[in-house]
Write a structure and sequence with these properties.
Recoverin, domain 1; mainly alpha; 106 residues; 7 helices
Length: 106
C-alpha cells in the first residue's frame, strides 16, 4: 500500500498558481465593472417630496377640479382633521397651493 505524504509548507509552496491569480483578477474586474451597476439597480428610487405631495393631491381630487372639497379630503384623514386650518382663504376648499403649504408645514 502506498502512503501519501503531505508536502511541507515552504515559501515555494505558498505562491499562488496561475489559475488562482487569474481567478482573483477576474473576480476583481467583475466586481469593479458589473457589481456597481447591479447594486445601483437594486437601490430604491428617491422620491421627490413635491412629487409625492402632488400625487396625493391628485388621488384625493376625485372630480379633477383642482381643489379638494371637505368630502374629498376625507380620503386623507390627516388633511381632513386640519381642513379648516389648511383652508387659508376660507373658501371651503383646498387649492393645490394650500395643500402643498399645509403638508410641507406639518
Amino acid at each position: 500500500m502506498r502512503t501519501f505524504r503531505r508536502p511541507q509548507a515552504s515559501a515555494a509552496n505558498l505562491t499562488p498558481s496561475r489559475f488562482e491569480r487569474h481567478s482573483v483578477a477576474l473576480l476583481a474586474v467583475w466586481t469593479l465593472t458589473l457589481a456597481p451597476g447591479l447594486a445601483g439597480a437594486t437601490q430604491p428610487k428617491a422620491v421627490d417630496l413635491a412629487e409625492a405631495i402632488s400625487a396625493a393631491f391628485d388621488r384625493a381630487d376625485r372630480d379633477g377640479d383642482g381643489h379638494l372639497s371637505p368630502q374629498e379630503a376625507e380620503h386623507l384623514p390627516a388633511v381632513a382633521q386640519r381642513f379648516t386650518a389648511l383652508d387659508r382663504d376660507g373658501d371651503g376648499k383646498l387649492s393645490r397651493k394650500e395643500f402643498h403649504q399645509g403638508i410641507k408645514g406639518s
